[in-house]
Amino acid sequence: MRQLGRIYLLAILFFLYTPILVMMAMGFNESQLYELPFSFSTRWYVALMDNQQLLKAGMNSIIIAVITAVIATCLGTMASIALSRRTFRGKSLLQLLLLPPIAIPWLITGTAMLVFFYWSGIGRGMHALLIGHVALAIPYVVLVVGTGFNTIRADLEEAAMSLGSTPIHAFFAVTLPLLFPSILGAALFAFAVSLDQFVISYFLATPGYSTLPVQIYSAIRKGFTPEINAISTLLLLGSMAAILIFARFAKPGDVSDKR
Amino acid sequence: MRSDTILNDAARGSSDPRQRRPIPAWVATTALLLPTYGWLTLAVLLPLLTMFVFSFMSATPMGKTPIVFTLKHYRAFIDQPYLINIAWTSLVIGFWTTLLCAVFGFLAAVALARATVGRMRETLLVLLLLPFWTNGLVRVFSWTMVLRENGFLDGVVHMLLPDIGSVSFLYTRYAIVLGLVHGYLPYMILTCYIALSTIDDAIIEAAASLGARWWTILLRILLPLAAPGLISGAVLTFVPVIGSFMEPRILGGKVGVTMGTVIEDQFTQAFNWPLGAALSFTLLAVVLAIFATFSGVLRRGTTA
């Protein structure tokens, strides 16, 4: 039985990884039309270096992801302090309000943002993408940091205060260092959420300002070359690295409310 | 009066001269929460509200056409009966995706919880969840490499059976479902695994020592106990799937017309925003109804 279970898990892994590996391999295949037999070549990666449109979009993606990670981590951590350590009325309602960005299909959220940003004059482009990405990342940050709070004993902070520390000092001297791995994990997580976000970006991008996934999508729709495989490979490796580092800081099983 | 305040000040000063007036708790709490909820209001709540208003407008308020408020977009399912077919397609795709994810994901979670231990289990869990956190668009694109004519699948099949024709099924509904199962299977494995990991081993040992066969244990013990995880996994698969548009477009081609692609069209091609908004809100109503129905299970399933 035990053997059968392991073979089954290997089969599932095969199903999950085969298409990804095939896609990556095709980025190293000489043929423009993805023809086999396979002949190794790095020409598509070389071509990528000259593709200003994809490079610019890639740069935009990274910049947006970094800014999103910084803003979402600061805001989300602050909210998490209040939600984890303080008691007040309406707390469960506020926790419920964290769900829409995660639970409502992004198609609905994305089109709603498009309508509102157009109507209110906020418009589309980089700032609009940032507003959207941060909103999507905040709930994950609150969740990850909140999980971190649960593993820290509240009485450590109280002990510091009873020894004469002010609440603010106790927080920065005791709680924050203990919380640091969770906060760092949350930041990486927010980075990955933003880097992989396509739907929201798709509706808020402009012809002059778009991100890598939006460019990849329009390339897939219009006809593509293995250059798309090459850039996709780099994108996947980037987000996988972020998530694997995250997994070192927070246990992956803890983040149950993801989509 | 004056002497009173002086006395109070003196009393406060004498107790602890260094202590500053503490910030009231509610001010601190509000200051901590305001940035997050302000941001969410601007980015999510106000947009949803605006779209709700738009869904009653007679036309997109861009040109000079006067805007009248109307319910006609919510009658679209009656006025344009082809929408019923499209909605049905979306539900069928959602049903099969969820069912396949549930079966394969539950079994994978059982295998993970019962057939692996320690470091091997941790490694497998990370490997199973990793694809989920990579770009969904790229993963869907990957399937076109496998499923296209003369793609990877054809290559493997022709190596084994050289005489057979192309088995490519890109641009069919099967391809859409396959791509979606690939996308959401890791999530189902996670929710089922979380539910299963809370089960006490002693229950299973007791059942086995009393003579229960493995399928009895699987169906009568593990399945009912994992039900909360299975249901929350199913809800959180079905909901995004019925709102998906990029998977049907890339893997379905011409047959990939779903509610998601119709809504997308209203915003990017047809510029009929009010109709798109009304369809979005109809979809949102379905989503909220599903969440409301399973809210109890979802709360238990995700905090277990």
UniProtKB/TrEMBL annotation, chain A:
Record bears the keyword Hydrolase: no
Stored InterPro entries: Bact_Polyamine_Transport, MetI-like, MetI-like_sf
Similarity remark: Belongs to the binding-protein-dependent transport system permease family. CysTW subfamily.
Membrane-protein topology: Multi-pass membrane protein
Listed transmembrane segments: 7-28, 62-84, 96-119, 125-149, 170-193, 199-218, 230-250
Entries under Pfam families matching the protein: BPD_transp_1
Compartment(s) where it occurs, according to its Swiss-Prot or TrEMBL record: Cell membrane
Name of the protein: Spermidine/putrescine transport system permease protein
Source organism: Rhizobium herbae
Family annotation (Gene3D superfamilies): MetI-like
Signal sequence extent: none
Main location: membrane
Domain ABC transmembrane type-1 positions: 58-246
Record keywords, A-Z: Cell membrane, Membrane, Transmembrane, Transmembrane helix, Transport
From TrEMBL, chain B:
UniProt lineage: Bacteria, Pseudomonadati, Pseudomonadota, Alphaproteobacteria, Hyphomicrobiales
Region annotation (Disordered) ranges: 1-20
InterPro entries the UniProt entry points to: MetI-like (IPR000515), MetI-like_sf (IPR035906)
Domain ABC transmembrane type-1 residue range list: 87-294
Keyword flag Transmembrane helix: yes
Membrane topology: Multi-pass membrane protein
Gene source species: Rhizobium herbae
Signal sequence region: none
Gene3D superfamilies per UniProt: MetI-like (1.10.3720.10)
Domain of life: Bacteria
Family in the record: Belongs to the binding-protein-dependent transport system permease family. CysTW subfamily.
Membrane-crossing residue ranges in chain numbering: 25-54, 86-112, 124-146, 174-196, 217-242, 275-298
Localization: Cell membrane
Name of the protein described by the UniProt record: Spermidine/putrescine transport system permease protein
Principal place of residence: membrane
Key words, A-Z: Cell membrane, Membrane, Transmembrane, Transmembrane helix, Transport
